[in-house]
Amino acid sequence: MATIKRIDDVVELLGLIQPENVIQDSFQARRGAPVDDDDIGQGVKFNLGFDGGTLSTSFGFKFVMEDCSFYTDHTVVWAAEEQISISGACMADFLERVAFMTVFPYFREAISTFATRLRVPVPTVGLVRQGTVDLQIDPVEMDEFLKDYTIGPPATEPEDE
Questions:
Q1: Which of 25, 9, 16, 11 is nearest to 55 (CA)?
Q2: Which residues touch 10 (CB under 8 Å, ≥6 apart)?
Q3: What distance in Å separates the CA atoms of residue 143 and residue 88, rounded to the nearest whole number?
Q4: Which residues on neighbouring strands pair with residue 45, listed in sequence order?
Q5: What is the pTM of this model?
Q6: In angstroms, rounded to a whole number, what is the distance separating the alpha carbons of residues 149 and 113?
Q7: CATH numeric code, 5-146
Q8: Which pLDDT tens digit goes with each residue over 74-89?
Q9: Where are the domains of the chain?
Q10: Spatial CA neighbour of 98 closest among 54, 53, 124, 135
Q11: Sign of the alpha-carbon torsion through 37, 24, 27, 121
């Protein structure tokens, strides 16, 4: 049986995977809706998916102003050239330092575009510095979640000659 490479370091992971596609799953913008002061600001949620040897990282981004709110979901589909498994700590690091930073420019663009279409002042969505995103991922729980998943093409057995 072929050995599946276990990845524990995000730098090593970056050498093995590439984004295959970026998809805007949904977008919602609303002008003139009443907003509580406690709701003003921004927030993030995330989800993981595995399908056919690919990894999907999905992020939802909420941005609320006094007179307008925006919500957008984007998914990045990641592919690997060889079959790998990823540790929970590595995945947590990847989600916070790489995957989120991959979709953040798409969030900013969507909010800017739709604010223009709604004829509201275009908000300045602040920079997100690498290492400042904390998705509060428990590496042990992530390890448990990831234990049955690999990404990349199925490993093949060498043929006997």
A1: 16
A2: 90, 93, 94, 97, 98
A3: 4
A4: 60
A5: 0.82
A6: 37
A7: 3.10.420.10
A8: 999 999 988 999 998 8
A9: 5-146
A10: 135
A11: positive
